[in-house]
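sry for the spam today, last one i promise. struct tokens for design, 133 residues
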């Protein structure tokens, strides 16, 4: 969000300079400015949404590789989003539905730690609690 605010302030400065040079700010320039602001906000929201869903998708892949069971539905909560070390260590709580042996299970994995080492993500061991539905 800080990037968007900085970009908007920079854009406002450019608009001010253009206004001072031309002594006017026409409808065409205003339309272009609004399109740039809207595209920037939409692009940032799209990027943020993709970034937010990265680790849950990674957890689904990891779970399938380790247990050979596909997760049907998944909900998650990021636990350490306020800490400074959140760039290389991520802690999540996952709740998910799986099907095993023709039965449906509701499982929880709390405190799942994902460590980032360069461009590789490593899952620490975690406990899952499953209840039959």
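last one done:
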């Amino acid at each position: 969000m800080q990037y968007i605010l900085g970009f908007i302030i920079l854009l406002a400065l450019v608009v001010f300079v253009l206004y001072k040079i031309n002594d006017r700010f026409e409808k065409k320039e205003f339309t272009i400015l609004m399109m740039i602001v809207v595209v920037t906000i939409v692009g940032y929201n799209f990027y943020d949404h993709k970034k937010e869903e990265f680790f849950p998708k990674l957890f689904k892949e990891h779970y399938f590789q380790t247990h050979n069971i596909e997760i049907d539905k998944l909900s998650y909560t990021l636990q350490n989003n306020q800490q400074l070390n959140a760039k290389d260590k991520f802690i999540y709580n996952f709740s998910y539905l799986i099907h095993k042996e023709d039965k449906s299970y509701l499982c929880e994995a709390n405190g799942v730690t994902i460590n980032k080492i360069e461009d590789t993500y490593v899952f620490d061991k975690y406990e899952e609690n499953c209840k039959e539905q």
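Residues 2-51 form one domain. ok im logging off now
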